[in-house]
Design goal:
The protein has about 400 residues and is α+β, with helices and mostly antiparallel strands. The chain contains four helices and 25 strands. About 30% of the residues lie in helices and about 35% in strands.
Length: about 400
């Protein structure tokens, strides 16, 4: 009795395991409801995506070259300025005092030189008389030598006075230069994008980011562009002049048009990224209705080839199969062969976000299974199909 039960259990288990194979061989699988379509000619624009931000090409951060309190501000944030406009003045009282002192030093040394020149003329006449008297034997050699030494010393004093005058003039030029630096002038035409100091605060002559070292930033709004970071794996496909579509995070539904202008020669490690990246600059040719503001985060889709019309199918219809043991990888599709799924190996080409080019020769009337994805993932050779034709 136990033996019969054991045989029965084994038989039933075997039937359960074999039933799917018998069903596939004799009756076919359960019918798969799929969507099919034929090859269509599509314009495919292969592209890569990169993220970055908006920036000004022509932008200057003004800082003071002298230390002093801000006496006057002639602009506010958002104001338009022209090259050469006075935008800020540092308190110049001490610099004016120093300038007047240096001017007085120049005047004193000039007068001293004039006095020395008159003295030398007198000594030169006395020396000539002494020389004449000495030649006639009317004075001794010692008295003649005294007259000559006085003339020589006077000439040396004149040289010293002229050196002091040159020193005083150099100091005057230096003080005058410092005085001129109390007036901050705009070096470009642009807009005040940030104003970092107020009247009464101290301007610091420094290149570091300490308070007072930065006065304001001026940028030319016409020079705004997009700077993105492109992964080193993709940079080889990018060329200057390629078309790009830019989307600012603040305006997700308003893409802007642009053109690649610059590709960096040297890679860098960007913050928050694992690998190397290259800086790519994109000029904005058509901002549309977007209000451009520097610093805005954005993403750019750079189209790496010209638009081409090719035979293509929806990208989800292309399946990938890899056999690591045989070092083989293939792309394939399923076609509808009179209601039966047939697995067909294909060669693929260009792609975009929606369509993939088929480079293999396939008749235009052949129905290709394009979905749904849930059925495609489990579709097998020989499965029976209930196909619905989808025409674009």
């Amino acid at each position: 009795m136990n033996a019969k039960k054991l045989v029965l259990i084994v038989f039933i288990a075997g039937m359960v395991i074999a039933l799917p194979f018998i069903n596939r061989a004799v009756f076919g699988t359960n019918v798969k409801e799929v969507n099919v379509s034929t090859l269509t000619q599509r314009v495919i624009s292969p592209s890569i995506l990169a993220s970055g931000f908006l920036a000004h090409e022509e932008e200057v951060m003004l800082s003071s070259e002298v230390i002093g309190k801000v006496a006057e501000l002639f602009v506010e944030e958002g104001d338009v300025v022209r090259q050469g406009n006075l935008v800020l003045r540092v308190d110049d009282k001490n610099f004016i005092a120093g300038f007047e002192q240096s001017e007085a030093a120049v005047s004193i040394n000039t007068i001293d030189i004039e006095r020395q020149e008159v003295r030398i003329e007198n000594l030169q006449r006395q020396f000539e008389r002494s020389k004449s008297l000495y030649e006639r034997g009317l004075i001794g050699e010692e008295e003649f030598e005294v007259a000559r030494n006085q003339t020589d010393l006077a000439n040396i004093d004149l040289l010293s006075s002229r050196a002091r005058l040159a020193q005083a003039k150099a100091q005057l030029d230096q003080v005058n230069d410092q005085l001129s630096k109390t007036q901050i002038i705009s070096p470009i035409d642009g807009v005040i994008t940030s104003l970092d100091i107020k009247v009464g605060e101290t301007a610091i002559a420094s290149s570091t980011n300490i308070p007072g070292s930065s006065l304001m930033t001026i940028a030319n709004p016409a020079s705004i562009y997009t700077e993105v970071l492109v992964d080193e794996a993709d940079v080889a496909t990018i060329e200057v002049g390629q078309r790009a579509e830019i989307v600012a995070i603040a305006y997700p539904d308003q893409p802007m048009q642009g053109v690649v202008r610059f590709i960096a020669n040297t890679a860098k490690i960007a913050q928050g990224r694992q690998g190397l990246s290259f800086v790519v600059k994109i000029d904005i040719t058509d901002p549309g209705e977007v209000t451009l503001r520097p610093g805005m985060s954005c993403r750019a889709e750079i189209f790496t080839r010209q638009d081409q019309e090719v035979a293509a199918v929806p990208i989800q219809a292309i399946l990938f199969e890899e056999d690591r043991a045989e070092l083989r990888s293939d792309y394939f599709i399923f076609v509808n062969d009179s209601g039966v799924a047939r697995k067909t190996k294909v060669e693929v080409g260009l792609s975009d976000d929606e369509f993939q080019e088929l480079m293999s020769e396939i008749d235009e009337d052949v129905e290709i299974v394009i979905g749904p994805n849930q059925e495609l993932r489990h579709l097998l050779e020989g499965d029976r199909l209930d196909a619905t034709r989808i025409d674009d």
